[in-house]
Amino acid sequence: MTKEGAQVQLLGVDTGGTFTDFVCSDGERLRIHKVLSTPARPEAAILQGVRELGLEAEPLRLVHGSTVATNAVLEGQGAEVMYVTGRGLGDVLTLGRQNRDTLYALELPPTAPPVVPEWCWETGGRLGPDGAVVDPLSEADLQAFDQALAERRPEAVAINLPFSFIDGGPEEALAERVPEGVFVSRSHKVLAEYGEFERGIATWLNARVGPVMSGYLRRLTDALPRAAISVMQSSGERVAADQAGRMAVNLLLSGPAGGLMAGRYLGELAGEPRLLSFDMGGTSTDVAVIDGEPALTSEGSIGGWPVAVPMVDMHTIGAGGGSLASVDAGGLLQVGPRSAGADPGPACYGRGGIGATVTDAHLVLGRLRPDAFLGGEMSLDAGAARTALTRLGDGLGLTAEAAAEGVLRLANEHMARALRVISVERGLDPRDFTLLSFGGAGGLHVCALAEALGMARALVPVHAGVLSALGMLAAPRGRQLSRTLTGPLAALGAERVEQVLDELADSGHRALAAEGVAGADQHCQPSLDLRYQGQAYTLNVPWQGVEATREAFHRLHEQRYGHRLDETVELVNVRQSVTGPRPVPPLPRLAAGEAGPVGRAQVHGVSAPVPVYDRARLGAGQRLAGPALITEQVSTTWLAPGWSARVDEHGNLLLVAG
Predict the structure, then answer these.
(1) Mean pLDDT in residue range 123-138
(2) Residue 226 placed within a domain
(3) What is d(CA 184, CA 161) in angstroms, rounded to the nearest whole number?
(4) Are residues 20 and 109 in the same domain?
(5) Does residue 392 share a domain with residue 356?
(6) What is the distance of C-alpha 510 from the center of its chain?
(7) Could you say which of 209, 236, 259 is where a domain stops?
(8) Distance (Å, rounded) from C-alpha 425 to C-alpha 129?
(9) Do residues 93 and 115 make contact, with C-beta atoms less than 8 angstroms apart?
């Protein structure tokens, strides 16, 4: 309660490429809402949703998953950055790792460098791997830097000196010379790890999108003066808005991270802790593994750039409800990655789109109800969808229905392949997991994908169409901290490892205390990045002492790659996760009961009309047999023939094959 006695409303917001989703909690019940996104000014959709929910004058705690930083990277937008590095290292970002997307292509198109030579500045301040000064930062260097700043007038400065994670003093000395109002990104703050290229890219990306994100959050904060705003990080924890702008590179997967946090919470409630998740929205699909907790990675990438900061480990493909279908020059059907987006959207939206999309295919096959989209707030144009699929079918010599079936089969194969990447290719058997479906379009594909992977169980959680927004309310405050510490694990010993872990924990404790999280409520999870000596890649293992951690690494290596080696185990990075309490969104328990269908629909490929159920009317314990359609305000679930569903006490749908 506020001083005035008003109930503080909790609002989770997920800004997607097509829709902006809202989940509002007053402590007792949840309200959900969707509006079309406004990519040019994302805050406009948020403010529209706040108005339509009647929350303009209410005190709010708003947790926000944003695509602003992501879109800036993907579209090549952002601030003009001056990149500062050690002498002789100005070309590191341009040279990169010399990886090739197409290994056997003889002629590769030129790739624009992240920073052109005119905006690279080389200076002193270089350290060696032992922390010794190799090239000191002199007063002459600082004065030359002052002159370079005055001549170039950058909007942002990215400072990446060699081995800065050992001693950030030279970077701080340079940062102090940057004029007020210019965004500064320092590598020892952004990513305190070895790898000159990866650390440099992360520091440059942070500088490039930091001003964009800071400006956006400032506009949103000014427009909602009664709201305490925090932002979801890519690793699944939230951070206060006044801190988020300075760590924009940590926000690149903030929306998808929200879905995984909600999936973890709801899977736990449903007794299904081992999940393969797929989040199918209007523009793309994200797939991930939740084995008790969502896995994190420091080997992600966005827009072709490596992003070595911690983020949820997921695989993204361009297959969503708005994915456009087309016939290529060879006469073959293609689906995605191009999307109709929010404007004009699929043909059935009636906003001027003429291309056939996955959503149009579902509508033509009868799996979407034209009068039940967005809870009836938006009517779909079935005629426009049929026209688009007829045009597509003409190019393939197929009817509209056959073309629609082809579109869905191809979209399903794209998603099944992505799910195999994060499971089978990592030594995990999909049959040992439950398929978790969410996103506005996920329920329409869940049965087909489970069958493609040989899975017999699936979970369509309550509020699946806005799960990422719900996840914002289930995310704790937190920080993911790391530092490079290299050497044989046994030789370094427990005392040295725990010294660095304690230093990282102290940093995390201070950051969370500044956001109001009491020390007694903070929780630490230490881990190490390990490898066999001579390897280039690492595996992350929880810290349990030297011997137990080393044995855990051997087991994980054997699971992932099929073998273990009798080699020295080497430590590369030390990591510390510091989080506050996990919020528990209120999910009311359903009363037991049975609700009959609210109608029937003719679905292509099924001889008799199938029952249509309103999910909001279903009672706990109710069982449904496929084929059936289950509609709700923001999504539809297609319960395919041969599948059954049970409603649990929280409203989750537990699907079983056979």
Answers:
(1) 94
(2) yes
(3) 14
(4) no
(5) yes
(6) 26
(7) 209
(8) 35
(9) yes
232 and 200 co-located in one domain:
no
Of the two residues 96 and 83, the one the predictor is more confident about is 83
Q: What would the DSSP string read from start to end of 453-504?
A: TT--EEEE-TTGGGHHHHHHHTPPBEEEEEEEEEEEHHHHHHHHHHHHHHHH
Average pLDDT over residues 15-28: 83
CA 308 to chain CA centroid, Å, is 14
Q: Residue 557's domain spans which residues?
A: 479-579
Same domain, 615 and 556: no
Mean pLDDT value of segment 17-31: 84
Residue 274 lies in a domain: no
Q: Domain check: are 88 and 190 in the same one?
A: yes
CATH of the domain at 571: 3.30.1490
Q: Which of 227, 231, 263 is nearest to 249 (CA)?
A: 231
- 531 and 633 together in one domain: no
pLDDT band at 576 (very low <50, low <70, confident <90, very high): very high
In angstroms, rounded to a whole number, what is the distance separating the alpha carbons of residues 262 and 276? Answer: 13
Beta-strand (E) ranges in 212-313? Answer: 227-232, 238-240, 274-280, 285-291, 293-294, 296-297, 300-302, 305-307, 311-312
DSSP 137: -
Same-domain pairing of 192 and 219: no
> Which residue from 140, 177, 137 is spatially nearest to 157, judged by alpha carbons?
177
Model confidence at 2, in pLDDT bands (50, 70, 90)? very low
Peptide bond before 627: cis, by omega within 30 degrees of 0?
yes
- Count up the domains in the chain and report the number: 5
Query: Per-residue pLDDT tens for 228-281?
Result: 999 999 999 999 998 888 899 999 888 778 888 988 988 988 889 999 998 887
Residue with token string 């490596």: 306
Specify the DSSP class assigned to residue 29: -
Residue pair 459/220 in contact (Cβ under 8 Å)? The answer is: no
Cα gap 355→239, rounded to integer Å: 40
Token pair listed for 306? 């490596």
Given 193, 225, 251, which residue is the final one in a domain? 251
Q: Which amino acid is at 549?
A: T
Range name among 368-382, 440-454, 588-602, 603-617 with the lowest pLDDT average: 368-382
> In 3D, which of 288, 210, 208 has the Cα closest to residue 243?
210
Q: What is the pLDDT of residue 5?
A: 47
What amino acid occupies position 216?
Answer: Y
Whether 27 has a pLDDT exceeding 80, the answer reads: no
- Check pLDDT > 70 for residue 3: no
* Sequence-distant (≥ 6) Cβ neighbours of residue 98 within 8 angstroms: none
d(CA 314, CA 245): 24
